[in-house]
Every structure is written in C-alpha cells, then in structure tokens.
Amino acid sequence: MRLIQCLHEGRIHAALVEDETTVRLADTDTYSLARAAMAAGKSFSQAIEERLTKTRLDYAELVEAQRLMPPLTHPDAAHCLVTGTGLTHLGSADTRSAMHAKAQSQEQSQEAEEQLTDSMRMFRLGVEGGKPADGQVGAQPEWFYKGDGDCVVAPESPLPCPGFAEDAGEEPELAGLYVIDDHGNPHRLGFAIGNEFSDHVTERFNYLWLAHSKLRACSFGPELLVGELPRHLEGTSRITRNGETLWEKPFLTGEDNMAHSIANLEHHHFKYRGFRRPGDVHVHFFGTATLSFADDIRVEPGDCFEIELPAFGRSLRNPLATPDNDNDVVTVNAL
What we know:
Layout: E1 2-8, E2 11-17, E3 22-26, H1 30-40, H2 44-50, E4 52-58, H3 59-64, E5 68-69, E6 80-86, H4 92-100, H5 110-129, E7 142-148, E8 152-153, E9 172-180, E10 186-195, H6 200-205, H7 210-214, E11 218-226, E12 233-241, E13 244-253, H8 262-270, E14 281-285, E15 304-308, E16 316-319
Helix pairs in contact: 1-2, 4-5
C-alpha cells in the first residue's frame, strides 16, 4: 500500500495510489488517519481503507499543479521533529573519507587524522554491533537534528538554501515516518524516499561543524510505503540541468546493505523521553553511502535533484532554489 498527501478543495487529504495514473482520496489527512487507527486499536492500513472515498484524482495533474504535499505532516510544524543518523550503510565510511579528502594536505595535521579516525571508529562500531539480537541493544549510531516541520519541503517544490551556505548537496536516503500515541509509544506508519540535503563543504572543513551542515531544508515522499521495508533496495540518484543529466549514480539501501538494523536506529532515537511526546510526528533519515559531492559535483540554482526507488513508486524530485538573502549579521538586542 502506498499513500500520498495532496491539496484538494483547500484541505490536505491522504490518497491511496491505485496505479501510475490514479489516486483515491481519503476523507482526511495522514496524521488524522494514524491517530484514528491508534485510538481504535486498528492497523494503519485498515484505517486507510475505512476512510477512502469514491473520489479519484489524476496523479499527473496533482504533480503538474504542485498540489503534492509531504506524505505525513503535523497540523503544528513545531510538533514535527526531523532527525537522522549517519555512517549507517556499508560503504558510507568510504564516502565520508572521500568527502573529507580535500581537507587533508600533504602535511596533514594530527587533528584532521584524529577526526577521520573518529568517523571510521563510529562506522566500525555499527558493523560490529549495529544489528543486535532481538531484545538486545546494539551500538549507538551517529545522530543529528535537522529542524522541525518548517524545514520540510513538499515533493516537486524548490529546496531553499541559506545565503551563508557553502554548498547545497543531495543525500538520497530512506526516511521512517512516525506518530507518538497518547501513552508516549512511537508507531511507524511506514517509509518514504528522502532527500536529506546538507552542506558538505561546511562539514568537510571540520567534522565538528556537522551539526551546522545539517540545519537545512529537506524533502521526503511523495509516497509513503505502508508496511515492511524490503531488505534490499536498488535506486538511482541523479541531478539534471536544463533537462540534461548532469550526474547519475546507483545506490543501495535496505537492511541487507546497512551496518545497522532499522530497529537499532529507532531504539537509539526514541530511547530519549523528549522524543516520545504524545501526538508528535517524527521524520527520521536513515543515512546514505552515495553523494554527488564526493564526485566533485557543484550544483546551481535551477538544477533538479531526483531520487528514484522503484518500490516506492514516483521519484522524489526537487529543484534547487536561488539562495536566500539571509547572510547578514544577526544582532541580538537586550530586552
């Protein structure tokens, strides 16, 4: 079962993807469907089926009119937390090392060496202990915060970039989508394609700036895959410029291609009580091993990111917006 959200007659509705051309509207949005399922003790898929209407919409027309929304939203953006984990995929340490390679001159400083060693140590912890037995706790992953729901951009909409940014780079990832019930228990609705979108030049200069590099926009969707995640997934990440392919590369994801299990990554996020606040939405990115930045690609406004995973239906596409004019010095006034 695959679900989208779209604008219809001034409201956000969930809609079931019936085929390549048609979606069938539900009478409410995804968040409300999830809350109703939890309240009634039903499965999410059952709640969806019970709330479907007879209204069918043309999928391509929704895309053309830019009426697609992220497949899960919260009515109050402050109650949607966007986070992620890194160094989770087999091969991700090599990508990280390649990304940082230019930060090393022939006369490498001891500090740079130690920083790269920390990344490799984190990766090896995952390889050795990221897939614990059921009921056991595995190695902690790298973790980062991106923002609240205001940082999420709808599929097909431009990704904004702050004026002070050094780079605007895609990160093709899986995202887990969650709602916390009234008792503080997290419930996963399913998974979506994600573009985690980061500033890799800032990160490369000093890994301690990773937190800064992640405070950017992101996108996920357009489709929410309800149910279990396939263990092996093959996709393609590409960038187009003026209708021509600028860069393209295949990528692998799913647990067979990861150093950590999904359950272990979820545990190390939701073990914090602050992330189990009743009613909240969580969007959690699960990492990648494929970046155009590692191949020395520099994007320009108007370039389009496209992330394709056939199991998730329609590709996630977002053009890059012109950088915001927000690089002035911020002055804080005493009250």
